[in-house]
Amino acid sequence: MPFQRIQPERLSRSVVRQIELLLLRGVLRPGERLPAERDLAERLGVSRPSLRDALAELQTRGLLESRAGAGVFVAELLDSAFSDSLVRLFAEHDEALFDYISFRRDMEGMSAERAARYGSDTDLQIIDTLYKRMEAAHQKRDPTEEAQLDAEFHLSIVEASHNIIMLHMMRAMFDLLHKGVFYNRQMIFRQRATRGDLLAQHKAINSAIQARDPAAAKAAATAHLDFVERIMNDYKRSEHNEAIARLRYEHAQQG
User: Cα–Cα distance between 60 and 210 in angstroms, integer?
Assistant: First the structure.
């Protein structure tokens, strides 16, 4: 008969599986520090040797990393999403910029639609809280804070979509944006003429999600990225025109 004796699962393996799921679902984020060993062992209800075995396995697999004197951290998994050579290539060509915006438009439209449909009450509360923080930052006219909250707001919608592949993919996309590979987000929020439009667009996205209207949420998110694309088109055109004007000026000075 094809039956085998059931072996009890080692405690360390149970710990590994729990941390794996937290990483997979995006609860534990890249760069996040885990609780101290004693605290974490108590929370999990396991012995410290069992916990050490689990953490060692996860470190061997590249999911966690130990930093001397600092503790154990979630590995920066997003760094491996794109090679350094490809990132440099992205940064040097406008074609990549507009394909990036197009990709975000498709993915974030889908994320907003799914968030309105599948997001829990807690998910929607997080999105609403971030929007209200954006309103407050808007009143303070702080472009740095507005840009940071903009990223958090959009990622909270992706998280509320409850699709783990989409989540990790979009975190990689926002990591590139955070590093300034494509453009400086603060630049957009420094433009007085666009700040009000951006806030109104975020309000429309939030309102549709809070109303659990998938179609309206998708339309609002798509319209927002259309607007960002127009801003970047105008910005690149202005850069191009300025470069030509400088060449003419320099030529005139030499003549």
Answer: 42
Strand blocks (E) in the chain: 64-67, 71-74
User: Helix (H, G, I), strand (E, B), or coil: what is residue 143?
Assistant: helix
149 neighbors 133 (Cβ within 8 angstroms):
yes
| 202 contacts 131 by C-beta, under 8 angstroms | yes
What pTM was computed for the model? 0.79
CA-CA-CA-CA dihedral for 123, 159, 118, 219, to nearest 10 = 100
Among residues 166, 50, 49, the alpha carbon closest in space to that of 114 is found at 166
Question: DSSP character for 103?
Answer: H
- Residue partners of 3: CB distance under 8 A and separation at least 6: none
Residue 137: is its pLDDT beyond 60?
Answer: yes
Residue-wise pLDDT for 168-209, tens only, equals 889 888 888 777 766 666 667 666 668 889 999 999 999 999
